[in-house]
């Protein structure tokens, strides 16, 4: 298995600590054996693209685009890709003292209880913390990210499904990633998967961990949050660009995802920017 890192290898080494967020990519042959590593430091990763089986000594999960993967310092883990596309991740590492401080205040263990969080509103909010952390002056987001990870609820086990049905869901997820600004109706997604709407909704939840509409909204929220931070495009235009026809619905979804309005999100990002 070859590692092709945009900024560093996976998992990031201590030499990468100067960067608050590492953007990594990993390419692999799914027919080969699982690749194994050990985390030097605790780490949180957001899966931007790619599908892979992610396992520790006692847990195994399927990581999909939009997932959060977690690793404790000294913990061994393995990765087995299920296709030839590899994956891309945003990765943040943590020193033990910071996690212990946050855990003490929250009354929880300083170790992550689970190895992954499926695509969800929680994962989307953590994505926002990671993006904000990468901005100049965003270091305080490291504490919020750690708190979100340490206090996250254990996800329910996903239903076992066939490789054929998983592949069908993957096709729908890829369509959402490439066309989230369009309607992406349930009928369209079901047709792409080659399933009835009822069967598609059930299979999608079994593979991804949330409904197709929830996944679509979270994909749109991540795109909107990035554009708010990196452009001066009017908020209303961003809402339309990412697929919302109702501005009030956009505002409600954004507040649910990130705990603030789009304008507040943008102002926070600009307040820490040197430009």
From TrEMBL:
Q: Does the keyword DNA-binding apply?
A: yes
Q: Name one Pfam family in it.
A: AraC_binding
InterPro entries reported for this sequence: AraC-bd, AraC_XylS_family_regulators, Homeodomain-like_sf, HTH-like, HTH_AraC, HTH_AraC-typ_CS, Tscrpt_reg_AraC-type_HTH
Q: Which keywords does UniProt give here?
A: Activator, DNA-binding, Transcription, Transcription regulation
Identify the stretch(es) annotated as Disordered.
1-33
Q: Which GO terms describe its molecular function?
A: DNA-binding transcription factor activity; sequence-specific DNA binding
Task: Name all HTH araC/xylS-type domain ranges.
Answer: 170-268
Q: Which SMART domains match?
A: HTH_ARAC
The name of this protein is HTH araC/xylS-type domain-containing protein
Task: Give the top-rank taxon of the lineage listed in the UniProt record for this protein.
Answer: Bacteria
